[in-house]
Specification:
The structure holds 2 protein chains of 2 kinds. Chain A is mainly alpha-helical. Chain A has one domain (about 1-215): Four Helix Bundle (Hemerythrin (Met), subunit A). Chain A is built from 7 helices and no strands. Chain A has helices at about 1-5, 20-50, 55-60, 65-90, 90-120, 150-180, 190-215. In chain A, helix 4 (about 65-90) packs antiparallel against helix 5. Residues about 1-5 and about 135-140 of chain A have low confidence and may be disordered. By secondary structure, chain B is mostly helical. Chain B contains 4 helices and no strands. Chain B starts with 11 loop residues before the first helix and ends with a helix. The chains are: A mainly alpha, B mainly alpha. At the A-B interface, helix 2, helix 4 and helix 7 of A face helix 1, helix 2, helix 3 and helix 4 of B.
Chain lengths: ~220, ~90
C-alpha cells in the first residue's frame, strides 16, 4: 500500500504517457537545446563571416586538457545513471554513493574550466572587446590572441555551459540531501530521474561544444 | 507486468567505453593531415553519434513512448532552419 501511495509522483499521465515532472523537464531541456543552438549558430556565422578574428583551435585552446575534462564529464554521466539504477533497485546507499561521485566529478569539471580560463586569459585570450585595438594591445598587458569575436563567442558558450554544470552540481547536492533523508525509494524516485535528465543533457551539450569549439 | 526491481538496464559501461573511444578518436582525427572538410564532417558525425548514445541510453529516450520521441525531435527542424538561414548569410 505504501509503495502505491509513494509511486503517485511517477504515475504516467494520459496523452504523453509519462509523468508530469519528466515531461516538464523534457520540455525545459528542449528549450535549452534552442538556447545553445542560438549560441553555437552565432559562433558559426561569425567564424564564417570574420575568419580573421579566429585562429585554429589547437593553436590557442588546450585540447588535451579539455579532452580530459570531457572524459570527466562523461564519467559523471555514468555515475549518475548508476545512482538512478541503484535507487530503482531500492539501494539507498548506492544512490548516495553514486550521487557523491557525480558531485565530485561535476565540481572537478568546473574547477578545470576555471583553471583553463585563468591560463587562457593569462596568455592573452580574453573575452573583452575593450582589450583589442588596431595595434593589438589594449586593456590587457600583453598581446591579445585572435580578434574580439573569438574571445567573446568562446567565453559565452563555454561560460553558459559551465554555469549549467555549476547549477547542476548545486541541484545534485539538494538531491543528495533529500536522499540522505530517505526521500527516494524503489517506486518513488522521480527526483533522481529528473536530475539525471538534466545532468545528461549538460553532458550532451558539452559533447557538441567540445567538437565544434575545440576541434573544428 | 515487470516490477521496478526487475528493471533491466542498458549496457551503461559499454556505452561509456564507446564514448571514451570516440572522444579519443575525435582528438586524433582532428589533427590528421587530411583536407579540412573531411575532418569537419567526420568530427560532426562522431559528435552527433556520441550525443545520440547519451540521449538514447543515458536519458533513456530509447525506452520512452514514441510520443516522447516526437517531442524530442521538435527542435531538430528548427535547428536546421536556423543553421541553413544563418549560413546562407555568408554565401
Amino acid at each position: 500500500m505504501t509503495s502505491q501511495v509513494a509511486a503517485v509522483d511517477r504515475v504516467p499521465m494520459p496523452g504523453m504517457k509519462v509523468y508530469n515532472l519528466k515531461l516538464g523537464m523534457w520540455v525545459f531541456l528542449l528549450s535549452e537545446v534552442m538556447f545553445f543552438t542560438g549560441l553555437i549558430g552565432s559562433y558559426v556565422i561569425l567564424r564564417f563571416a570574420h575568419p580573421e578574428h579566429f585562429v585554429e583551435p589547437g593553436e590557442v585552446l588546450n585540447v588535451p586538457l579539455t579532452a580530459f575534462n570531457t572524459f570527466v564529464l562523461i564519467c559523471s554521466s555514468v555515475t549518475m545513471v548508476k545512482a538512478f539504477a541503484a535507487i530503482q533497485h531500492g539501494d539507498q546507499q548506492g544512490l548516495k554513493r553514486w550521487l557523491v561521485a557525480t558531485i565530485i566529478l561535476g565540481a572537478f569539471f568546473v574547477g578545470v574550466q576555471i583553471f583553463e580560463y585563468s591560463l587562457l586569459t593569462g596568455e592573452g585570450f580574453v573575452p573583452m572587446a575593450d582589450a583589442y585595438s588596431p595595434l593589438g594591445r589594449g586593456v590587457h598587458e600583453g598581446p591579445v590572441i585572435g580578434g574580439p569575436l573569438y574571445g567573446a563567442t568562446f567565453y559565452t558558450m563555454t561560460g553558459f555551459h559551465g554555469a549549467h554544470v555549476s547549477i547542476g552540481v548545486l541541484c545534485m547536492c539538494f538531491t543528495l540531501w533529500r536522499a540522505s533523508k530517505g526521500a527516494y525509494t524503489a517506486v518513488s524516485h522521480g527526483g533522481v530521474e529528473i536530475m539525471g535528465l538534466y545532468w545528461h543533457f549538460v553532458d550532451l551539450v558539452w559533447i557538441m561544444l567540445f567538437t565544434i569549439v575545440y576541434l573544428i | 507486468m515487470e516490477s521496478e526491481a526487475q528493471v533491466k538496464h542498458p549496457p551503461y559501461m559499454f556505452i561509456w567505453g564507446v564514448l571514451f573511444v570516440f572522444t579519443v578518436g575525435e582528438v586524433f582525427f582532428a589533427f590528421m593531415d587530411i583536407p579540412k572538410v573531411f575532418i569537419v564532417v567526420g568530427l560532426l558525425i562522431m559528435a552527433v553519434w556520441k550525443a545520440l548514445l547519451v540521449a538514447l541510453y543515458y536519458m533513456h529516450l530509447k525506452f520512452e513512448p514514441k510520443r516522447m520521441w516526437v517531442l524530442a525531435a521538435v527542435p531538430l527542424p528548427l535547428i536546421a532552419i536556423l543553421f541553413l538561414f544563418v549560413l546562407n548569410e555568408n554565401f
